[in-house]
Specification:
By secondary structure, the chain is of the alpha+beta class. It has a domain of 57 residues. 38% of the residues lie in helices and 16% in strands. Strands 1-3-2 form a 3-stranded mixed β-sheet, with helices on one face. Helix 1 crosses helix 2. The longest helix has 17 residues. It is globular and about 30 Å long.
Length: 88
């Protein structure tokens, strides 16, 4: 399975929790979010990059569903279940 590389930038955002730039494989996420809001926004913006023609309501519904189950599985922002693997 090929993993699509998506650049994630964290910065203060004024009016939105996140932005997606599908043509650049890039997202920006606000630095002022709770763990749950961060997780939902991360998933939401990644879905925009992966499915740039999907309707906003579809993206929002799918992101909320994924966040719900990932959250229930114990994921919390800043406390990943596993440490990232070192590149070899």
């Amino acid at each position: 399975m090929a993993i699509r590389r998506i650049k994630i930038k964290h910065r203060p955002l004024r009016d939105w929790w996140g932005y997606a730039y599908p043509e650049e494989n890039r997202i920006e996420i606000s630095t002022n979010l709770s763990d749950s809001q961060y997780l939902d926004t991360l998933i939401h913006e990644i879905l925009h990059v992966l499915y740039p023609n999907a309707a906003e309501t579809t993206i929002a519904d799918q992101a909320s569903t994924i966040r719900h189950y990932v959250w229930r599985a114990g994921y919390r922002s800043g406390r990943p279940l596993r440490k990232p693997r070192k590149k070899q």
